[in-house]
Structures are given as C-alpha cells and as structure tokens.
Amino acid sequence: MKFSNYRIDEKIKQALDEMGFKRPTDIQYKSIPNIQNGEDLLAVAQTGTGKTAAFAIPIIDRIHFGKKTRRRKDGTKCLILVPTHELARQILAVFNKIGKYTLVKSAAIIGGVDQEPQIQALKEGCDVVIATPGRMFDLISQGHLKTHRIDTLVLDEADHMLDMGFIDDIKDVLYKIPKRRQTLFFSATINDVIKKIAYKIVRQNAIRIQISPKDPVSKNVSHFVLFVEMDHKRYFLERVVKENEKQKILVFVRTKVRAERVAKAMERVEIEALTLHGDKTQAQRTETLKSFKEKEECTLLIATDIAARGIDIADVGIVINYDLPTETENYVHRVGRTGRFNKKGFAYSFCAKDEKPILDEIQKFLNAPIEEIKIDKDAYQETLNIERDRKQDINAVMEEIEDFENRKKRKKKK
Ligand code: ADP
Ligand code: MG
Fold this sequence. Notes:
The protein is an alpha/beta fold. The protein has two domains: 3-210, Rossmann fold (3-Layer(aba) Sandwich); 221-375, Rossmann fold (3-Layer(aba) Sandwich). The chain is 46% helix and 16% strand. The strands form two sheets. It has a seven-stranded parallel sheet with strand order 3-4-2-5-6-1-7, sandwiched between helices. Strand 3, helix 5 and strand 4 form a beta-alpha-beta unit. The longest helix has 37 residues, at 377-413. The protein binds adenosine-5'-diphosphate and magnesium ion (MG).
C-alpha cells in the first residue's frame, strides 16, 4: 500500500511525497491504523525502520483535522518524551517536515539552552511538545506549559524512559496529564521487567506490535568483533579510519574522559575527530552533531552513549564499539546508528580480554554469534607498526630540527 492511498490529509501526503516517502515501512504499516483508531500501543521494531513517522503521521493528521474543522479546543494535545536533547530536536524536525503544510505547530522543550524562545513558542500555541523531562517540569511549574488538554502521550526509546533513570519523571508526568489519553510506546528493545511496567501505564486492551522480535538490529548491519588488547585499540581505530577515508564513522567509548583521550590520540596521528558527551555545553553538542551530519570533512565522531539512542544520520557507514557497552541493549542502539532505512552498515567491536564477558552477554542478547575478524600475528604487528614507523618519522624530524637549532646557535657564537 502506498501513502497516497492512506486515510490521511492531502497536505500530509504532499509533504511525504516531497520527503521521498512512498510506501510505509512495516512498523508504519502496522502502527498507523491502530493509532488512528485511538488504541494504546506498545511498538517494538528494529533500529532505523521509521518509528518516528509511525507516530508522527497519525498524530499530525488528527491534530490538523481537529484544527481545520475547529472540532477541538486550542492547547497542547500531544506530549512526546525522549531521553536526549538531540533526539528531541531531531523528532521536532520530522514533525515540522511532515506537518509542513498543515496547521500543526510543534516545539522542542529541552534543557541546556535559553528557555525564553521555548516560552514564546508555547505562548503562540504548540499542539505538539517534544521534551526532555527536566525543562518540561520547569515550564509546567512556571505555568507556561499547560497539560490539561494533552490526550496523546508518546514515549520514544520507551524502554529507556521507563528504566531507572527516568521512571520517576514519567510517574510525575502521568500525574500531571489527563487520565483519558492515548499512550504510545516505541522502541527497538524492551525487556520483560520494562514490559511489565509498560503494561501498567497503558490501557488493558493495548495493542502490541513487534517486528522481527528476535532481531532487534536492522538486517542491513553486518557485525564483526576484533579481539585486541586494551592499549592497542587506538592503533586499530587509526587503521579503520585510514582505510575508510570517505566514510562517516561513529565511535562509542565508555566515558567522557575516554572520548577526549581517544580524540587526542587520533589528533596525534593527524586524524581529526569530533567528540560528543555530557560534559559539553548544549551549544557545542548541537554544533558537533551538525558538523558531523553536514560537513564532508568531519568524518569521525567519538561519543558516549548519549548518542546511542535514536539519532538518525543517514550516511554513517561504520559504527565502532571502541569499548563494549556496559548495558547490553545499548549494543543494539549503538550499532543501529548505521544501516538506517535501506542503507548498508558495518559495526566493529574492539573487544579486550576483560570485555569478553560483556561480549558473551551481547551475543546471548542477539541470539547469534558476532563474526570474528581473525587478525593473524603479522597483521596485528603491522597495525602496531603504523605507530612505530610514525614515531620513527617524528624522531627523525625532531633530530633535524635540533640539528638546525644547534647550527644556528653555533653560527651566532661565531
Ligand atoms: P527509528 O526510529 O525506527 O530508528 P527513524 O524514524 O529515525 O527510525 O527513521 C530512519 C530513517 O528512515 C530516517 O532517515 C527516515 O527519514 C527514513 N524513513 C522512515 N520512513 C520512511 C519511509 N516510509 N520511506 C522512506 N524513508 C523512510
Ligand atoms: Mg527512533
């Protein structure tokens, strides 16, 4: 079925057509009619399969219809909660694109930036609010964000939003918005504990949609693991980067400090890297992501797990787990930053001895082994020698400089 045959407003069809969306993806095909029927939904589908539009299309359509026919009073109707500022912005961009020709107005309510423009947007009227919890609570308590007309609640990356770090916020939100509402959960992963929590929040007859439950990562991604020593990881990163010059490569590390350290190590071998983590200001984070997305020369981004969920950059060709993720399901989300929609992608995990148990957990989680790239002794040594040769080069240059300086000194003395 094509979008042109859908029971949605022509204005939306026109936007979808311009975006190049002709046919719905599986998750869109299954979700859209159910959302249109007012059902609660627990939707699980692989990374990069179009979950955003799966909720955006029917939500925009309903709000647009309500405004067009003046059947509904003004006010914020839909609240979408997400874990990171970047994801909020990205979803806002999708709503603005799909809703381009409609009467629907959306805004991102996120921390780390000036709240005045957000307050202004709310004053002018926002049908859809895409928020991270902190700033949302601020603006609710200041009276700028009114919640009494909200009738649709979406949790994107739902399992993460219902996990320890966010669940108290979500409980508070549930107190603040009307009980009569439609609740929609979207994610690529969900475990049994979280599922139980989710079922307490949705209505009893909620519909569960699960696309390929056994395979949470898009099948467009090929996974590999390399067994390397912890201290040698940077040489292998250098090698992958140099062998894939034109590719966009996203590297995940365990901590903020490590992100900076790895970037420094790359700098030393003349590889420029961007870094993205929680110690950066929001302005820096936004700028970094923009550069990585748009600038041809910015091909390497080193990030912590804040970039693991939801971020959609079309042409990331390779994801590298420089450190294996401490939370098993984050493997799925990290490598899901490549191979999006119908693109192909590669994921390489650098596994040190100490990380072997994590790798085992991940393979159990994936229900499949990750193929090993066997590195024979010579190839391994060769990779390390890139560094040794380079050191020798630098030593030679340093000697030359010293020589030159000495000669200068001698000349002066004369
Ligand atoms: P998910 O949330 O499932 O990880 P996204 O919603 O971020 O995936 O979508 C992944 C990519 O697929 C986006 O770049 C989006 O523009 C594209 N996409 C989504 N639906 C369609 C469609 N029906 N036709 C073409 N491209 C689509
Ligand atoms: Mg998503």
